[in-house]
Amino acid sequence: MTKNEELRLIRLAASGDRSAAETFIKAHQKSLYGYLVRMSGRPDVAEDVTQEAFVRVLSNLDRFDPRFRFSTWLFTIARRLYLNFCEKRRPSSAGEAVGGYEGSAVGPQAAASDAEHREFSRDAIQRALLDLSLEQREVLVLFHQLEWPIWLIADHLGMPEGTVKSHLHRGRRRLRDTIEAQREHRAETPEEVWL
User: Which of 98, 136, 158, 172 is the most buried (most CB within 10 A)?
Assistant: First the structure.
């Protein structure tokens, strides 16, 4: 969606056009929800915060400054809501996670093995993400999952680009080390413990 199209939809939604509001919600809902699942490790929290963010956005469309990107405004609101949630309750450890892994095996046994590997990979990534500092986790999710450029992440988080790059570098290294440690632990642990 171009910026002009987005601004047109925002003006229409601000004047009460539900179809316009639905269009730009659909355009951003999936990426916002994915971001929040990775940040919180909890789909229920991500769903609640996503919904509340859109309620806030729709209630305050008249306050949107068209000089900026709508997605940045939306993600800023969602981030603040998530941080408020974190202050009220400490998120539980990851039980469910999202992510993708495409296996290439064939047959029912291979499919079961691929499914098990995908589940372990998703859980391992989510547990490792939750072990990172909030800043490192957020930078990694914005950069890798949402494919935001460094300058936009820096602007969104209110930090210098060099700091974003440091968080990205250190976060990747810590994520890799944590996942490797989980794999080693899994290899040393009897299979029935993981079931």
Answer: 136
Residues 6 or more apart whose CB falls under 8 angstroms from that of 98 comprise 34, 37, 38, 43, 122, 126
Q: Delimit the domains of the chain by residue range.
A: 3-88, 108-194
Q: Mean per-residue pLDDT for 173-190?
A: 80
Within 10 Å of residue 164's Cβ, how many Cβ atoms?
A: 25
23-27, 62-66, 117-121: lowest mean pLDDT where?
A: 117-121
CATH fold for domain 108-194: Arc Repressor Mutant, subunit A (1.10.10)
Mean pLDDT of the chain: 81
Residue 38: other Cβ atoms inside 10 A? 25
- Amino acid present at 72: T
Structure tokens at 60: 């305050």
| pLDDT tens-digit readout, 96-126 | 333 433 344 444 454 555 555 566 667 778 8
